[in-house]
């Protein structure tokens, strides 16, 4: 199955999924509450850079830069309309950077966590819900796919742009839509097949 996971032996790779997911949620929550000014944003960026460097000592900074670059269109779509309609540039930019950092942190989680380990950890955490008729496997599927969705779509978008550039085609939303949709649906099918192989009904 197509995955963002990168093999490694770093502390983040070795950390159990449960604690790692809680740390991710805590950092993003702190980011949402306190990162409301340039100083806090710079501090959050420094922490994010350090985490990427810990995970990938050889190219952590480059990996983070690629994540930021992959998000450029999303950020422009968010920022430009607000500026056009008169919003102040500082809060708009701060919110855009806060979102970019949060998505990058979610990407780091997927880069350092295998799908199987992620699903197993989430299933264990939500197993008490089985008493009220909710399937832990279904919940784990939804959460795992949510965590992976944006990073994977960005990856597919980058691959599509590279393929089109190699053929000499100019980038456009019209040309991107169908290949991106096909890649996303294929990923969803592969995810479902992998779960079925584990005996999970989807």
- Tally of domains: 2
Would you count the extended β strands for me? 0
Helix coverage percent: over 70%
Strand-pairing-aware structural class: mainly alpha
Rg measurement, Å:
18 Å
Shape: globular
Proportion of strand residues: under 5%
Account of the protein in words:
- This protein folds into two domains: 1-113, no CATH class; 137-202.
- Helices cover 77% and strands 0% of the residues.
- The chain is globular.
- Helix 2 packs antiparallel against helix 6 and helix 7 (115-126) packs antiparallel against helix 8.
- It is mostly helical and 202 residues long.
- The chain has nine helices and no strands.
Features:
202 residues, mainly alpha, 2 domains, 9 helices, 0% strand, globular
